[in-house]
């Protein structure tokens, strides 16, 4: 049930080593939380999983990451990887277009043109992101004109619409109010039945509430990794 197998992963930004010998098996159908103080490498590691940072000038990566047994730095192209590994950011970032067009954006890029087919994907994705009932009567409204929590769920729907297997969430609730935060947490728990979910958070309560596994980062190292229930019971 391993989705990602990470072995001896080092990452350097120029001379600075941001990740040190990371070894981790990340499981399917679980929520894995990355926690630790600011600047300890959580985001950097998350971004190595969809190759958002190896194309940056001066970045060097050693070690391997396999997804379903395939080396993502050698044997999959980035476009393919990105459609299988979706990402949700800290700041909700819907495109400046309608709610419908945001969610239809990825499918359209992938060549889906038929209105009925797009309608179906848009509805399904918005339902999966637990926002359909709130927006079904205003799909033509600009996605940037709804609340922050709704924008974040629209962004999750946009990611789901492409049909990923993995959802990376980089502090997805840090910019949200407590009620919206709980909605996103509930949503993550629902989604784990179908996806592999990795969430970066600096919020220990959030990690203990929703994650199955927790990795503690410190100065670029994973200093502890295991079942969340055990990690939080034996600090
Ligand atoms: P976290 O997500 O845990 O807050 P990051 O992964 O963002 O930490 O950053 C880890 C370290 O790498 C920090 O010291 C940060 O300053 C550094 N860093 C992050 N991105 C870059 C970059 N593009 N170039 C150089 N250093 C970076
Ligand atoms: P990529 O640049 O990874 O090839 P595409 O432009 O092909 O991505 O868009 C595919 C999907 O990726 C979009 O439907 C959207 O969900 C997501 N996406 C692209 N750019 C962003 C962004 N800036 N913020 C959030 N999601 C994005």
TrEMBL record:
<keyword id="KW-0813">Transport</keyword>
<dbReference type="InterPro" id="IPR003593">
    <property type="entry name" value="AAA+_ATPase"/>
</dbReference>
<protein>
    <submittedName>
        <fullName>Phosphate transport system ATP-binding protein</fullName>
    </submittedName>
</protein>
<dbReference type="GO" id="GO:0005886">
    <property type="term" value="C:plasma membrane"/>
</dbReference>
<dbReference type="Pfam" id="PF00005">
    <property type="entry name" value="ABC_tran"/>
</dbReference>
<keyword id="KW-1003">Cell membrane</keyword>
<dbReference type="GO" id="GO:0005315">
    <property type="term" value="F:phosphate transmembrane transporter activity"/>
</dbReference>
<keyword id="KW-0472">Membrane</keyword>
<dbReference type="InterPro" id="IPR017871">
    <property type="entry name" value="ABC_transporter-like_CS"/>
</dbReference>
<dbReference type="InterPro" id="IPR005670">
    <property type="entry name" value="PstB-like"/>
</dbReference>
<keyword id="KW-0592">Phosphate transport</keyword>
<dbReference type="GO" id="GO:0035435">
    <property type="term" value="P:phosphate ion transmembrane transport"/>
</dbReference>
<dbReference type="GO" id="GO:0016887">
    <property type="term" value="F:ATP hydrolysis activity"/>
</dbReference>
<feature type="domain" description="ABC transporter">
    <location>
        <begin position="4"/>
        <end position="235"/>
    </location>
</feature>
<dbReference type="InterPro" id="IPR003439">
    <property type="entry name" value="ABC_transporter-like_ATP-bd"/>
</dbReference>
<comment type="function">
    <text>Part of the ABC transporter complex PstSACB involved in phosphate import. Responsible for energy coupling to the transport system.</text>
</comment>
<dbReference type="GO" id="GO:0005524">
    <property type="term" value="F:ATP binding"/>
</dbReference>
<keyword id="KW-0067">ATP-binding</keyword>
<dbReference type="InterPro" id="IPR027417">
    <property type="entry name" value="P-loop_NTPase"/>
</dbReference>
<keyword id="KW-1278">Translocase</keyword>
<keyword id="KW-0547">Nucleotide-binding</keyword>
């Amino acid at each position: 049930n391993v989705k990602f197998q990470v072995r001896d992963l080092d990452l350097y930004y120029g001379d600075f080593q941001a990740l040190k010998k990371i070894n981790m098996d990340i499981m399917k159908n679980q929520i894995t939380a990355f926690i630790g103080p600011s600047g300890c490498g959580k985001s950097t590691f998350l971004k190595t999983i969809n190759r958002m940072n190896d194309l940056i000038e001066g970045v060097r990566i050693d070690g391997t990451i396999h997804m379903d047994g395939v080396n993502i730095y050698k044997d999959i192209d980035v476009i393919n990887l990105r459609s299988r590994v979706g990402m949700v950011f800290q700041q909700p970032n819907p495109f400046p277009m309608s709610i419908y067009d945001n969610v239809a954006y990825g499918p359209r890029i992938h060549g889906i043109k038929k209105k009925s087919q797009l309608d179906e994907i848009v509805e399904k994705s918005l339902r999966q992101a637990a926002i359909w009932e709130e927006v079904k009567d205003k799909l033509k409204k600009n996605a940037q004109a709804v609340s922050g929590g709704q924008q974040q769920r629209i962004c999750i729907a946009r990611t789901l619409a492409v049909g990923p297997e993995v959802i990376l969430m980089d502090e997805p609730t840090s910019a949200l109010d407590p009620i919206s935060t709980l909605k996103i947490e509930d949503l993550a728990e629902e989604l784990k039945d179908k996806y592999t979910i990795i969430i970066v958070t600096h919020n220990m309560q959030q990690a203990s509430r929703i994650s199955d596994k927790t990795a503690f980062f410190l100065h670029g190292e994973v200093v502890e990794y295991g079942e969340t229930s055990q990690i939080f019971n034996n600090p």
